[in-house]
Amino acid sequence: MIRTGKVVKFEKGRPLVCFDRLAACESCGACMESKTQTLVRVLGDADVGDIVEVALPDKRVLTLSVIMYILPILALIIGLFVGNRFFAEQGTAFLVGLGSLGVAFLAVKLFDNWLQNQPHWQPHIVGIHKENN
Question: How confident is the model at residue 84 (pLDDT cuts 50, 70, 90)?
């Protein structure tokens, strides 16, 4: 997918691009945000104010969505199952489930930090339209 946005500043040596939110985001409501724009750090060279075309790796976005949403849910379910299987008290089983959920969130965070250093997983600039002054 290619999206068009504007470079608004630099963060950690990379351009920060402002995108208008997709129409699908407006009707979804899952994130409970009323923002009409979103900021994304991208790979590439551009100047502040440039209009850029950014390629977002579709397959990777889907893979990341599965990792970020499904892994914690599975960890919670498995933790609850293991807790119920090995502990008589439901409170203990619940704590085991929460513990596994916490471990899953930690794993997702560590994976996210690792991915930020992997260029083939990052959105990157494929076209630049210089701002006319």
Answer: very high
Distance CA 14, CA 52 (A): 13
Listed in sequence order, the residues at least 6 apart from 116 whose beta carbon sits closer than 8 Å to its beta carbon are: 122
Indicate the number of domains in the chain.
1
pLDDT recorded at residue 121: 78
What distance in Å separates the CA atoms of residue 79 and residue 69, rounded to the nearest whole number?
A: 16
Cα angle vertex 104, ends 98, 107, to 5°?
Answer: 145
Give the structural domain span for 90: 2-129
Q: Global pTM?
A: 0.60
Q: Is the distance from CB of 88 to CB of 96 less than 8 angstroms?
A: no
Q: Is the pLDDT of residue 25 over 70?
A: no
Distance CA 27, CA 49 (A): 29
**Has residue 110 got a pLDDT over 70?**
yes
